[in-house]
Amino acid sequence: MDVILIPGFWLDASSWSEVTPELEAAGHRLHAVTPPGLESVDAPRAGIGLDDHVEAVLRLVDGIEGPVVLVGHSGGGTVAQAVSDRRPDRIARVVYVDAAPMGDGDSINDSLPVVGDEIPLPDWSVFGEGMLADLDDEGRRRFRERSIPEPAAVATDPLRLTDDRRRDVPSTIITCEYPSTQLKEWVAGGAPFVRELAAMRDVEYVDLPTGHWPQFTRPAELGRMLVDAIAR
After folding, report:
1. Contact at 8 Å (CB) between 1 and 71?
2. How confident is the model at residue 232 (pLDDT cuts 50, 70, 90)?
3. CA 112/CA 123 separation, integer angstroms
4. Fewer CB within 10 Å: N-end or C-end of the chain?
5. CA–CA separation, 85 vs 94, rounded Å?
6. For 83-106, b where at least 16 C-beta lie within 10 A, e where not — what string?
7. Spatial distance between the Cα atoms of 37 and 150, rounded to a whole number of angstroms
8. Strand (E) positions, 98-155?
9. How many domains is the chain built from?
10. For residue range 118-159, what is the model confidence (pLDDT) as tens digits?
11. Domain region containing 132
12. How far apart are CA 64 and CA 2, in angstroms?
């Protein structure tokens, strides 16, 4: 299976490097994405928005014959969702890694501190302890060292969804920061921020208890979960 790996904020394709061995051993063809503006610390980021990240993945999908699995971590999950909205007949499954589908018109995160045209990785105090679980001092140092500022508009641009067939695309939610029971309670309670998740017609939940960056804290387990999700 062709698998496209989409990183979350501040990360490039290399952030999947400790996850990919499990997928490669299972025989999958991997396409790890470095989104526009994330090529290097010095890359230009002015004028790059959410749609540019979506278009970059769409070009990959359109260049592949046959079905494709999309794996999106955090904000990369929103990119994967947008791609499934535009190519619902091409996507075999979307795997959201500590992410969930968002509603039309929502933005990924408009509260992050912007500096000019970009959002540098903030101070750790911006993140809750649940997000930072298992990311020790050395892990935090390595993350910051490799981080690349995110184009500001990617975080603030509204998501545009137009094709309800996206809700039929099989989806896997790998929950890390929150247990799946919490997500299900929000859905059952009609919480507005999970309204799109509630409308999805083929969703499974898998728990991987750790912080928001399992590709760093539990990469082998994440790899095996991805292999299992793709097999389904």
Report:
1. no
2. confident
3. 11
4. C
5. 11
6. bbbbbeebbbbbbbbbbbbbeeeb
7. 7
8. 118-119, 150-151
9. 1
10. 999 999 999 999 999 999 999 999 999 999 999 999 999 999
11. 2-231
12. 8
| The one-letter amino acid at 56 | A
Q: Give 201's pLDDT tier (boundaries 50, 70, 90).
A: very high
**The two structure tokens encoding residue 222:** 């994440």
pTM of this prediction?
A: 0.96
Angstrom distance (rounded) from CA 222 to CA 189: 29
Q: What is the DSSP string of 50-108?
A: HHHHHHHHHHHHHTS-S-EEEEEETHHHHHHHHHHHH-TTTEEEEEEES-----TT--S
Beta bridge partners of 2: 29, 68
